[in-house]
Amino acid sequence: MDFRLSEDQLMFKKMFADFCTNEVRPRGEQIDQTEQPPVDLLQKAVDQGFWAALVPEEMDGAGLDTYTYMLMLEELARADLSTALILSVHNSLVVKPLLDHGTDDQKDRYLEALAFGQMLGAFALTEPAAGSDGGALQTTAMPDGEDYLLKGTKIWVSNGELAGLFLVFARAPEGITAFLVERDTPGLKVGYREKTLGLRGVPCNTLYFDLARVPQANRLGREGHGLKIAQQALDLSRLGIAAIALGGSERALEEAVKFSIEHIQFGTPIAQKQAIYDYIADAKAQIEALRCLITYAAWLADSQQNFGQYASIAKLFGSRTAYQVTHKMLQVHGGYGYMKEYAIERYYRDCRALEIIEGTSQIQQFLIARDVYQAEGLKIRP
Ligand SMILES: Cc1cc2nc3c(=O)[nH]c(=O)nc-3n(C[C@H](O)[C@H](O)[C@H](O)COP(=O)(O)OP(=O)(O)OC[C@H]3O[C@@H](n4cnc5c(N)ncnc54)[C@H](O)[C@@H]3O)c2cc1C
To answer: Which of these, 113, 212, 229, 318, could form a disulfide with 242 (CB 3.0-4.6 Å)?
Structure first.
């Protein structure tokens, strides 16, 4: 077993770290406070290959393996969680399903624009009555000549108001089906942007489909295969959320260590108090355990093995780790941690979303338990 990074992985890690430290990190506070997505920063990220992370080299992409892609998300999250989530949704939930299920024509029409900064991707599954239960979605896709007409409402679509291409799930005659929907499709309206606790640089919008006309040529995969496509994309994106949780937890630890060395009470830095260094030790232990989980799940993915259960385990453990670590690292800061001047306040709010997005912790628990019981011959239901 060899845990060392290859020369290529080291090179990418350094490139990600340089960009994230120099360009992304200094912008985190401003992105949060203005609630504006970092459009110029995202454009700069195009040149570094962040939009084309998973696109094969022969198509002029970065061609990252899963593990190196996780390093990218970790570095982004360490610098700013909003930027990390925007690029994670784009790569894991739009570019990857297009690569896996797209026709040659669909790849010809969209891949270059997605990879090189002309079109950001967004993923539209959730509806008011279909959150954890994606199979209950009510948006319909009725065939009409060479097209489908989409009707319904999607909520909380990350990247909504920035996106050029939406991967939309709707109910067609043969069942739930995936569609590539361009932003200027007649009948599609990008609506209300939510106010959120954290991740305030990620525009999270409602989409209205009022008989939006989508050509059959934009159906991704077969009719009725939409949930399989979503599930496969969510396996990768959940592992990505674990990597974002890792980066967020590392940043929280870094901020708390720095603060505890500088901050004096009772005549010594608080780093000398056992209650404080116990917190630091626990956080470090959780972070390193999470890194091992992500490494293992990514190795499964890169060796073409089923990694879905480990993606769920990594997401469950990772999002909890980020929640617990940011909570404790804020406590290390005392009252300063409650003030907007300190980055830990932002990380505490941003990381809270990780237990909810792309499948809640309770749904990950169900998926993990389902596999455990399945091995014993018992089928459990959500
Ligand atoms: C910031 C943010 C960004 C998002 N971005 C996107 C996006 O880009 N695209 C998209 O499609 N969606 C997006 N979502 C939606 C997200 O995927 C859903 O919020 C999530 O899947 C949970 O659905 P829900 O919120 O409707 O909760 P519900 O499903 O209504 O669940 C409510 C509570 O009940 C629990 N629960 C539900 N069913 C079960 C069960 N069977 N067993 C045990 N507990 C259960 C849940 O865990 C939760 O605690 C986003 C959400 C947020 C907050």
So the answer is: 318
